[in-house]
Amino acid sequence: MTRIRQLHLGAFMRPVSLHTGAWRFPGAYPDANFNFAHLKRFAQTLERARFDAFFMADHLAVLNMPVNALKRGQTATSFEPFTLLSALAAVTEKIGLVATASTTFDTPFHVARRFASLDHLSGGRAGWNVVTTSNPDAALNFGLDEHMEHDERYRRAREFMDVVTGLWDSWADDAFVRDVASGEYFDPAKLHVLAHKGDYFSVRGPLNIARPPQGWPVVVQAGSSEAGRQLAAETAEAVFTAQPDLEAGKRFYADVKSRMEKLGRDPDHLKILPGAFVVVGDSLEEAHEKRERLDSFVHYDSGIASLSIALGHDVSALDPDGPLPEIPESNASRSARQRVVDWAREEGLTVRQLAQRVGGYSGLQMVGTPSSIADEMEQWLTEAGSDGFNVMFPYLPAGLDDFVGKVVPELQRRGIFRREYEGNTLRDHLGLPRPANRFFAVDDRSAISQR
Amino acid sequence: MTRIRQLHLGAFMRPVSLHTGAWRFPGAYPDANFNFAHLKRFAQTLERARFDAFFMADHLAVLNMPVNALKRGQTATSFEPFTLLSALAAVTEKIGLVATASTTFDTPFHVARRFASLDHLSGGRAGWNVVTTSNPDAALNFGLDEHMEHDERYRRAREFMDVVTGLWDSWADDAFVRDVASGEYFDPAKLHVLAHKGDYFSVRGPLNIARPPQGWPVVVQAGSSEAGRQLAAETAEAVFTAQPDLEAGKRFYADVKSRMEKLGRDPDHLKILPGAFVVVGDSLEEAHEKRERLDSFVHYDSGIASLSIALGHDVSALDPDGPLPEIPESNASRSARQRVVDWAREEGLTVRQLAQRVGGYSGLQMVGTPSSIADEMEQWLTEAGSDGFNVMFPYLPAGLDDFVGKVVPELQRRGIFRREYEGNTLRDHLGLPRPANRFFAVDDRSAISQR
After folding, report:
1. Which CATH superfamily, name and number, covers A8-281+365-430?
2. How far is A217 from chain B (nearest CA, A)?
3. pLDDT tens digits along B204-229
4. What is the pLDDT of residues A153-166, one digit of tens each?
5. Which residues contact A271 (CB under 8 A, 6 or more apart)?
6. ipTM of the predicted structure?
7. Among A49, A221, A250, A388, which residue has the fewest nearby CB atoms (within 10 Å)?
8. Residue contact A62–B109, C-beta within 8 A
């Protein structure tokens, strides 16, 4: 008997809501994004609902928007991902913990070490969302005057990942024998010195931490450009993607999975999880009222600033009630930029309409009853649009509690979402194999290399 | 009435014991250094004993010793400091959490952000041990073929600290107003853009996290060279130092405190805490037997390797039973190197004798009864040798439990160590003032600079 396909659910939790008006919604915690007591409660609630993962996006700068827009959102102060996820690891037991780390503004040794450390602390629950960082303001915080060009960032990212995974394999899984009688803490035949020298990095190794419980923390990616899809097909195990609707989702899903087949990878070894902004009501009408009320808290300054980011150009001087003019190419994420331009063209939106949509939340949304939302999610699953979703909550705690208390039980009733965790690691939850150590065959007592 | 001077106690916890034989001692946890459940218990025990801080040293490489020596110690696998301390922050309430971070192999934006995040997560308990990293193997993990020269490292460190403290001051303490009615999450007049351009760093800012609860996390230093002492006198609030005996400790103490006076700093605003390796017995004889038994677990390979590190030269080919020959200058920490050379000369030690001392534990030790150890600590305090100690445990858990269960109550009985925490932050424990924001006077509604 074939088991019914199962949904995988991540919770998008940095920021806790992407909606600019979230913190002003009646009953919402204004400091939900930056209060550890709240975040601990959210993580524990998501774990009780059997979510696969708690996911933190990241930025290496205060977002590059005009201060009059910036001041209206909750993101200017946030916890750094490793400190927050490590604290949450100590107060949860099963839920996966996924953090973004940049291949452009960090170094492979630090990144390999921190994810390995989080994986050990959490008993195998870490995931690395590999990003190349498209925010040009980040470059200015790291001594670079010019942001690195898109394709160059991806070439660097690929070598960065080679080094990180090589460092994770520094030690055989059974290297640390701690033999009290002989006084041998580890077996030197099970230590590999990477000695990597490439175009971007020179890293000797070994890593000063044992191989992670998962072998490698789960490798996640989010890029949707041509280079991003190819890198995902080659190396990712989960993709958090922004897809505007099911048709686009199906094209993306088919594209990435067919790239994997061409590369000889099992397509089931990568889970595609589009972001879905979910607003739950007891009736369709109530749900739409909630969304409209939430949008009413978005200021035009904020909307136009978000639109400027999406386009990679300052558009604040445009006539709010005119159409969007031609916008030149920029260093902004190509896919996000094109989607916004397409909306304006296809739906004939004014600058103001576009700004309000982008400034609230502009991506895939599911606004409805527990039953209608479950219908949508099930349709994506059965029509090969996704393997699940990275769920975005509209406001906290009520928006999260609504999803956990009303939608999750409906998904469970339909048999498409787990009632209990079946394993302990993020790989277990996502149904991913544990990578073999490239330098040590299982039970092979001989080393490939040693110092 | 003048209050009696109080001892400050840090616990040196990475590694959990500096003694190479620690993990083999009968009853010790062989994995004490790399088992979160154990470390959580240790931190909670230290907190019940009212320790000021839990301190993690750090290395950015597997220690540069021959593998036959390396394999005998417990340090080749350790948690990364931020992940471990953040997890401990979630399961403790009062104890300070101090981590080492390198000014040579990290960047100011990342370091400022992580310590700010740890300070927020822990409610004001973070401390930054500023090191310039003297291990040349670390350079090879970060793409540098040659290790940076000593004075150059200190010049870079000074600018690094300027940038980090400037980033911590990016926001006034009351910048985040979260005014639900007006929709203003922060007050733009309370945001400062650093725009630093110096010899080593170009960092725009602002930091994407609110000012730390402590204003700045406590700034700790460990260098004892001329450049290290001067940097400490100018910038440090606690110094973890290696002093071989009380006379040397008094010279160091007087030197650093007088440097502070010359700079116009209050000498009480820096606490000097020498490392003290403490072995507790119910009798002097029992204590010395414990130390000797512990040393018996040190292998010659390990001792000679430690000696090579201390000297910055491979001395493994020397005649073990001959005297130490002249050793040329090296990139190793100058003060540590000189101390070892002085022992050999002054006490006429053979290479083997020197190796066994260095390989076990070579610094200040207090081996005795609760009463004799309290006498020694009190003498250091009253004779201006230190403001307390960074306590090093010989093996875990018994060596830690002995100190907490026997020595701490004796110190409390004498009135020189707290019975209860009087405040909530690490600054409160150490009696340090909270730094003013250099860009915003308290209650000043006008900004120095804004974007």
Report:
1. Luciferase-like domain (3.20.20.30)
2. 15
3. 999 999 999 999 999 999 878 888 89
4. 889 999 999 999 99
5. A8, A237, A238, A239, A387, A388, A430, A431, A432
6. 0.91
7. A250
8. no
